[in-house]
Each structure stands twice: as structure tokens, then as C-alpha cells.
Fold:
Amino acid sequence: MSNSKKPKAIFAWSGGKDSAYCLNKVIEEAEYEIVYLLTTLNAEFKRISMHGVPEDLLDAQSNSIGIPQLKVWLYEASYESYEKQMEEMLLKAKAEGIEHVLFGDIFLDDLRIYRENNLTKIGMKAIFPLWKKDTSELIKSFLQKGFKTITCCVNDAFLDETWVGKTIDTAFITDLPINVDPCGENGEYHTFCYDGPIFKKKIDVEIGEKIYRPLELKIDETFGGIESENKTKGFWYSELQLK
Structure:
């Protein structure tokens, strides 16, 4: 039964480790009633934006977590299209009495401002449960809680193809180059989380081929966009699929 005393909220879900860890924190603290998981997907390829994870893996996560989805389909790689599609979806949610959107962002100030400004325009509020947390401590806690995740995308300005399709463990974190944030918060790498305390059932995943895609305009998967300011030439993806 819904607890009407808690504020209703949407959780911005990318399918990766920061989302999973943040959602677990929110569920444990029980301050909000999470009504939906919100994810943006590329309409042409039916994949999670930026991460490149197929829709059926996203569906498997939602089913295992037990929270229904809101899918925002991106038909054009532009911020204008993104913002229009996102606003339409959020206004529908607001009509259901939802006024908060929770994000797993940690320290990108420009992105936080972007999210807050866009939500303020439609009378909603952004919440950041992990804001300014130490990323070294966060990734340690993530592993200690029993989460399991695999890299699905890496930025070639920071990591080569040997880093994609890898399970994140203590050795992975120890071996990261010194210029890579432990949580990949600067976009160095993205992940797919397949097991942990928020999942009722482990998601069985197969790792397929590695695919390289040259840099194009990338829209952030949860609310906002940041263009690369480094030497990124493209991204390596691991072709993940359900067993």
C-alpha cells in the first residue's frame, strides 16, 4: 500500500553503479516513495543513452527491483529535443502528484545546475542523495554491500578497450589510471549493474563483442548534457545481452 505521508518521487535510473547505490540508499532511508525509474533511451537503437545497454536489460533491472519505468525516447541528438521529451514525461508524472526527481550525481556542478533549472521551470525539485560524497569511499561501500556491475562503455581519452566488459572489483579500482575518478564521475566509464541488495533476482548477462564508436553529440542519460572538453575521440562499448 502506498504511504501517502512520504513525498512521491521519480528516480533517474541509468542502469549503472551510481544509480544502483543511490537507489539503495534512498530505499534504506525511506524518506521518499519511489514511484518510477526514469531512463532515456535512443529511439533508433533501443538502447540506454550513452551506456549503450539494450532495452531488454533495462526491463530486467526494473522487473527485479520491482519499480515500474518511465522511458523517455530520444529521436534526435539535440538538447532541444531531449528537453522537450523529458518535460512532457515529467509533466505527466507531476499530474500524478510527483514533485521530486532524485539523481545519483556526485560532484558535477554544471550538471546539477542544469537539472535544477530544468525542473524548476515545471515546478519540480531535484534531489541529490550522493552529492559531494568521496568517490573512493562510495565505490568501496558499493562493493561491500554486495553490488555487482560490469563496464559497458569506456571513454577512449582515459581508458582503452581492455577496460570495457570488465567486472568492477577491488583490483579494477586499484588498477585505474591516476587521472580516472574511482566512480568514473567525469564520464571515464559507465556500467551495468546486475546484482545487489536492490535486486530480487540476479540478472544473468553475457558479454559479447567490443564495439568502437567515434565521438558524436552525447546526451546525458538522466537529465542534461555535457559536451566533452578532453581528448575523447570515441567510446568503446561491450555488447551485453541476457543469457
